[in-house]
Amino acid sequence: MMSSRLSKIKRWPSWFLMLVCAGVLMFLGTQRDSGPSTAQERIEAISQRLACPTCDGESVYESRSPGSQAIRQEITRQVADGVLTDGQIVRMIDDSYAADLKLIPSATGFDALIWVLPVAAFVAAVGGLIIVFWRWRREGSLQATQEDQILVTQARQDKD
Amino acid sequence: MLAVSINAALGRGAILLGLLTCLSGVAVTIAGIRRHDLRALKSSVRYAYVAFFAALLAFVMMERALITRDFSMKYVQQVGSRDTPAIFNVTALWSALEGSILLWLLVLTAFVAAVARKFRGRVGDELLAWAMVVMFVVGLFFFFLSFGPANPFTMGPLGVSDGPGPNPLLQNHILVLFHPPILYIGYVGFTVPFAFAMAALITGRVGEGWLLETRRWTLYAWGFLTVGIILGSWWSYEVLGWSGVWAWDPVENASFLPWLTGTAYLHSVLVQERRGMLRVWNLSLVIATFSLTILGTFLTRSGVINSVHAFSEGSVGPWLLGFFAAIVIVAIILIGRRGDELRSPGAIDSPISREGAFLANNVVFSAFAFVVLLGTVFPLIVEAVDNRRLVVGQPFFNRMTMPLGLTLLFLMAVAPVLPWRKASQEVLRDRLFWPAWCGVFTLAVAVFVGADGWAPLTAFAMGGFASGAALRQIVLASRRQGWRGVVGRANGGMVVHIGVIIIAVAFTASNSYTRTQEFVMNEGETVTFSGHSFTFEGLSLESDDVKTSVKAAVRIDGDQIYSPSRSKYIKQGMDIGTPSVKSGFVNDLYLTLEGTVRPDDTQARIKIFVKPLIMWLWVGGALMAIGTVLAAFPGKRRRPTAPVSAGLEESVKEVADYV
Questions:
Q1: Contact B429 A15 (CB under 8 A)
Q2: Is residue B649 predicted with pLDDT exceeding 70?
Q3: Which of A22, B258, B322, B620 counts the highest number of beta carbons within 10 A?
């Protein structure tokens, strides 16, 4: 009795209701502003996109080196001016150094490989998986021919 | 004074003994296999013990040299100091290249000796004998490194009576005592399944035997690697002062790569055990996991990659790279030679099945590993091809791994409820119903407490979904098996899943909703931020033989005082900031002292980070460790005819209800 009531609850209308609830909640959640709420947080967000010019593989955000401090001060100045967007500030600082300070490689030239290769590998892996499943399914649906059956019968007789 | 100290003499002797022992171990065991000589094969056990004794002796001699401040030795001159506190004198052993290889050797030979002891009654088994040969070869390589290019027992210049001590970052937190050894146990532990996999390929016994022999060894190695990584994150959080736990630093990535392939293996091995399939794949994953530990060691020990905690350039790089290449080439040749024998007899009936989900999980884990590996080595490729410096940082890794992480959470929700072979629509609808509502409920709670952004919200929803599926499995298993419902591979695995989900949710929350503000505060001033009050009560000076520290006293919410500091390490001349953290179940309040400070200043720059759910990262890590131990215990044995995913009564009920 109880289990039949439970199984009724689990039918498609309840799933539909669940999807509607999830959709509404996602809509409500994504309507809010998710960006930095203060100037300081904007500075932190920008500093996470730039590499420390003098240290080993750290971002300006992580590093406490004088080089990073100087960049942080520049970001602070630009954020206080309020003229440039985050992307423009990153570009401006990056342009002012000889080394490439952007922590996100560009999507052009040789650097584009870092974006293309994972996607290509993933697509190839998923494609391979689909082909394998297709083969398995085809092999699974193969029927024994009369010749196969004769072979099996002969083998059984030989064994006996 | 002796030209060679007793520590160096005995240490060198021990390394030489280990080297010769491993060499003899290889030769005698191979000869024993060829001649079917049981006496020779039995001696491999003794060789394993002697190799362990040699590594232990070398380790003890180096510790003795550090503790007794034997500055005649170059390594002690490099990392030792008369002023370093005793505990950090012990940890100084693994604070640089040569010592860390010594620690690797100790752990490796301990594993070899443990395997030899465990299987001592079966030394005549060819599979085991070849596994011992492979482990002796790995041991030989590391003894060789320690004997030649990374010899920790060389003598230093005469007349040195003190040293700088270890890097200041490695002498201000107790976690340096635990994190490296535990991580190394994880790293090196994968040598055992690797050795058995190679032995399976050599002997042609590529069935399920080697998997079953190494199941627990792999699980423990994975568990230690997990705990090691979590402890490393904790150390980073408590020491580095940027308030993060994971920076996608090359050294972090080097430990994460074998974890990813190891995790994929732990799942795909179930398919082989159950259905006899994925033989090549499982062998490849084990070999990839081991070879990635060597590649990671190369990346972080050779100086080719810049990292905040990579060791300085040494001459071990080419040797490690050569060893990595040799492993890969030999493995490919062996797999190629076995060709047809590795073909699996069966087929996966449907992608909507437990084995289908494991395959999908493996594709995602492999893609994850590929992204991390590519991001780590891409700067090297760019430098080689284009001759320019490029840093691939956190934003790249976050962007690329986020969809993979979300997919893994989804698979964690779906896979545990799927039956083997094929799942009907009705079974899916029935078993996923409550877990899916758990996801919606979690999403509702997240929205209610103010979470925003589609990616974090999706992560929370998927986390709820996956935890619902894991809890369902534990509840059903506990109903059937009582306390054994949390024991065994499947049930312990669900405890691990819950740990992973907690970490994923905490990581998402702490990354997405950290609030930060920097305040220039005068003595006695109180500021309010994110619902908490912070009162700056002044600066104080603390000095000892090692460092001079300026500490800021900050009272939080009128209660306890927290003291972020900046320390000048006298010998190294390095200025290190140390954060102070008030931990809580909802938020951590993380304070750092910024800029240059003098103790007589009446003003200080205090940076405050409010970081949500950080404590749950450690709770999740602890659950993963507990789950691993539970998974290693044998669960209730099923009858071979028993259904895998549900009791018979349950299936009958399902069918009856449906009809």
A1: yes
A2: no
A3: B258
The rounded distance, in Å, linking the Cα atoms of B159 and A77 is 52
Q: CA-CA-CA-CA torsion for B306, B308, B309, B313, nearest 10 degrees? A: 30
pLDDT in tens, B296-318: 888 887 777 765 555 555 688 89
| pLDDT averaged over every residue in chain B | 90
Q: Which long-range contacts (CB under 8 A, 24 or more apart) does B590-595 make?
A: B590/B243, B591/B534, B591/B552, B591/B554, B591/B562, B591/B564, B592/B241, B592/B243, B592/B564, B593/B550, B593/B551, B593/B552, B593/B564, B593/B565, B593/B566, B594/B518
Alpha-carbon B252 to chain mean position:
9
Please tell me whether residue B306 adopts helix, strand or coil conformation.
Answer: coil
Which of A28, A100, A104 faces B388 most closely, judged by CB atoms? A100
Min Cα–Cα distance to chain B from A46, Å: 11
pTM of the model: 0.90
Q: What are the boundaries of each domain within chain B?
A: 1-163, 167-349, 515-612
Residues 6+ apart with CB under 8 A from B438: B464, B465, B467, B468, B471
Taking CA atoms, A108 is separated from A115, B379, B386, B395, in Å, by 10, 15, 14, 17
Cross-chain CB nearest to A30 (options B382, B454, B653)? B454
Whether the CB of B457 is below 8 Å from some CB of chain A: the reply is: yes
User: Which 292-311 residues of chain B touch chain A by CB within 8 A?
Assistant: 305-308, 310
pLDDT band per the 50, 70, 90 thresholds, residue B635: low
pLDDT above 80: residue B32: yes
Q: Which of B156-165, B520-529, B601-610 has the lowest average pLDDT? A: B156-165
Is pLDDT above 70 for B653? Answer: no
Residue B641: what pLDDT? 45
Q: What is the mean pLDDT of residues B491-518?
A: 94
| Least confident piece of the model among B5-19, B374-388, B401-415, B642-656 | B642-656
How many Å lie between the alpha carbon of A34 and the closest alpha carbon of chain B?
Answer: 6
Inter-residue contact B321 to B302 (CB < 8 Å): yes
Candidates A33, A34, A106, partner chain B, best to mutate (most B CBs within 10 A): A34
- The DSSP line for B382-395 is HHHHH-------HH
Please check whether residue B344 touches A, CB under 8 A: no
CA distance B437 to B432: 9
- DSSP letters, chain A, are -HHHHHHHHTSHHHHHHHHHHHHHHHHHHHHS--S-SSHHHHHHHHHTTBB-SSSSS-BTTT--SHHHHHHHHHHHHHHHHT-S-HHHHHHHHHHTSSS--BSS--SSGGGGHHHHHHHHHHHHHHHHHHHHHHHHHHHHT----HHHHHHHHHHHHHH-
Q: Please name the member of B363, B444, B516 whose beta carbon is closest to the beta carbon of A41.
A: B516
What is the helix (H) or strand (E) element at residue B574, kind and residue range?
strand B574-578
Joined together, the tokens standing for residue A157 give 């007789």
Q: What is the 3-state secondary structure (H, E, C) of B497-525?
A: HHHHHHHHHHHHHHHHCCEEEEEEEECCC
Q: How many CB pairs under 8 A join A and B?
A: 163
Q: How confident is the model at residue B655 (pLDDT cuts 50, 70, 90)?
A: very low
B515 CA to chain A: closest CA distance, Å? 7
Q: How many other C-beta atoms can be found within 10 angstroms of the C-beta atom of residue B282?
A: 27
Contact B394 A103 (CB under 8 A): yes
Q: CA B408, B411, B413, B416 torsion: positive or negative?
A: negative
Q: What is the dihedral of CA B483, B490, B405, B283, to 10 degrees?
A: 150
Q: What is each CA distance from B393 to A81, B182, B479, B649, in whole angstroms?
A: 27, 26, 47, 53
How many other CB atoms are found less than 10 A from the CB of residue B570?
A: 18
Report the chain B residue with the minimal C-alpha distance to residue A60: B242
